[in-house]
Amino acid sequence: MANRFTYYESPLGIITLQANEQGLLGAWFEIHTTKPDQLGIQDDSFPIFELVAEQLNRYFAGEVIQFDVPIAAKGTPFQQSVWQALTTIPYGETWSYAQLADAIGNPKAVRAVGLANGKNPVSVIVPCHRVIGKNGKLTGYAGGVERKQRLLVIEGREED
Fold first, then answer.
1. What is the sign of the dihedral through the CA atoms of 138, 61, 71 and 46?
2. Which residues form a coiled coil (predicted)?
3. Torsion angle, CA of 4/119/67/105, rounded to 10 degrees?
4. Answer CATH for 77-155 from 2.10.260.10, 1.10.10.10, 3.30.70.1710, 1.10.820.10
5. Which pLDDT belongs to residue 151?
6. What digits encode the pLDDT tens for the residues 121-131?
7. Residue spans per domain, the chain
């Protein structure tokens, strides 16, 4: 089962989408620090890409959206649990790393949660940008902190 990829032009820059028959493997901006080494075969007509593009279009238009695409991102069981918890953060809300650690039932794992959050391969759709420091400040984002801020503004958060 070969990986496929395509490019999506977002208002914040080009997003590379990668998928296989099981679902979306990755979505990242060109400057992301968490890109795979191998993309696979470029296939702009791969069926999941149309679904992802339609939902991203609605998201970037400012519509409240809960993404509904199959995710097949590869990671450790711990990373998978963190990424799953990220999908439960409501649109327009932010959580601290401590809240995310609590959500996975491991309140002492704040640093490990931060590392797993930073390795999320499915940017925007698995909303790692909704995690902020406990002091309410924006912290690192693999796609750039300024892009993180713009994603939060799209979701209705006031600029700091």
1. negative
2. none
3. 140
4. 1.10.10.10
5. 93
6. 999 999 999 99
7. 4-61, 77-155
